[in-house]
């Protein structure tokens, strides 16, 4: 009889690409299984543009005892062959912040393994994702609608398609998770015009900026979807020791400072029931105002 241990090693003996979720906070959030694979893989890549960990690459390298190759957008989208090269003979680990399938990018990546000739066997190792970590706000994960993304507005680009998604959720009384823009390795356009590639310093959207942009679009669209008195909750660095959660109206959140990245925001839906309210009011910037608005607009108004 084989012991469970040898069965496990037989099963995993064929070389493959491992897509490994790292969780949300630091180098210790990888699973024990993921760490085993990273320590024996031939090459280790870190996907570094859909999200970032709260620790630097060298901290990861020291903990994993391995050099890490940073895979930026350009590499994953245009040179995925480099990453997949040799995955038939040797194990390759592709590390993803959060959970492997939370971002469609990684589904696309797994598809490339399938479509490769011959196909590259791959396995994914799940981990915590922002999509479930927002449960820390006390809002029920069963009551969330579509997730939307908020980009940094520029002078000539202020997309508001998120508004329609939120409106659809709001009609059903559902909460909306808003994922905030991050800019990593953005080329400087002036330098580009002179034929030089210079990267802008990384930028991370804050809860305050997001709330501000939501109010601006409400002002323009006037659909009572994300106005000043809508209740919302801002979160920062979820799952880390210094996580922060702040609840209030969107107007209040434009003045909230949740510190270092990464931030996300949840707009509450009308179905927010008593237990959600009771748990969340502890995070309120102004409890009295929070209670008043909840009783007036939310409790049982689904």
UniProtKB/TrEMBL annotation:
Domain called Tetrapyrrole methylase: residue spans: 16-253
The family line of this record is:
Belongs to the diphthine synthase family.
Q: Which GO terms describe its biological process?
A: methylation; protein histidyl modification to diphthamide
Q: Where, in this chain's numbering, is S-adenosyl-L-methionine bound?
A: 24, 99, 129-130, 180, 238, 263
Entry protein name: Diphthine methyl ester synthase
What reaction does this enzyme carry out catalytically? 2-[(3S)-amino-3-carboxypropyl]-L-histidyl-[translation elongation factor 2] + 4 S-adenosyl-L-methionine = diphthine methyl ester-[translation elongation factor 2] + 4 S-adenosyl-L-homocysteine + 3 H(+)
Q: What class of enzyme is it?
A: transferase
Q: Which InterPro entries match?
A: 4pyrrol_Mease, 4pyrrol_Methylase_sf, 4pyrrole_Mease_sub1, 4pyrrole_Mease_sub2, Dphthn_synthase
Native organism: Pseudocercospora fuligena
What Enzyme Commission number(s) appear in the record? 2.1.1.314
Write the lineage as a comma-separated list.
Eukaryota, Fungi, Dikarya, Ascomycota, Pezizomycotina
User: Repeat among the record's keywords?
Assistant: no
Q: Does the keyword S-adenosyl-L-methionine apply?
A: yes
Pathway per the UniProt entry: Protein modification; peptidyl-diphthamide biosynthesis
Q: Which SUPFAM superfamilies match?
A: Tetrapyrrole methylase
The GO molecular function terms of this record are: diphthine methyl ester synthase activity
Superkingdom per UniProt: Eukaryota
Q: What does this protein do?
A: S-adenosyl-L-methionine-dependent methyltransferase that catalyzes four methylations of the modified target histidine residue in translation elongation factor 2 (EF-2), to form an intermediate called diphthine methyl ester. The four successive methylation reactions represent the second step of diphthamide biosynthesis.
Keyword list, A-Z: Methyltransferase, S-adenosyl-L-methionine, Transferase
């Amino acid at each position: 009889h084989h012991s469970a241990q040898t069965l496990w090693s037989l099963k995993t003996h064929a070389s493959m690409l491992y897509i490994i979720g790292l969780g949300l906070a630091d180098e210790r959030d990888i699973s024990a299984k993921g760490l085993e694979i990273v320590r024996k893989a031939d090459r280790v890549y870190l996907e570094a543009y859909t999200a970032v960990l709260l620790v630097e690459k060298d901290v990861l390298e020291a903990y994993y005892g391995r050099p890490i190759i940073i895979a930026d957008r350009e590499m994953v989208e245009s040179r995925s062959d480099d990453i997949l090269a040799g995955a038939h003979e040797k194990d390759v680990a592709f590390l993803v912040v959060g959970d492997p399938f939370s971002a469609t990018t990684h589904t696309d990546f797994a598809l490339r393994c399938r479509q490769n000739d011959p196909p590259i066997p791959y396995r994914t190792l799940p981990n915590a994702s922002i999509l479930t970590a927002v449960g820390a706000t006390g809002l029920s994960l069963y009551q969330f609608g579509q997730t939307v993304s908020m980009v940094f507005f520029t002078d000539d680009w202020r997309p508001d398609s998120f508004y329609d998604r939120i409106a659809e959720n709001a009609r059903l009384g559902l909460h909306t998770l808003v994922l905030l823009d991050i800019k990593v390795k953005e080329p400087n356009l002036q330098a580009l015009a002179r034929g030089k590639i210079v990267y802008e310093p990384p930028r991370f959207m804050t809860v305050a900026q997001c709330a501000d942009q939501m109010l601006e679009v409400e002002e323009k669209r006037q659909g009572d979807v994300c106005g000043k008195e809508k209740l919302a909750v801002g979160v920062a660095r979820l799952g880390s020791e210094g996580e922060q959660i702040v609840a209030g109206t969107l107007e209040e959140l434009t003045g909230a400072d949740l510190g270092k990245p990464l931030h996300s925001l949840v707009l509450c839906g009308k179905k927010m029931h008593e237990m959600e309210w009771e748990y969340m009011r502890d995070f309120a910037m102004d409890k009295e105002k929070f209670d008043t608005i909840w009783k007036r607009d939310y409790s049982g108004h689904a």
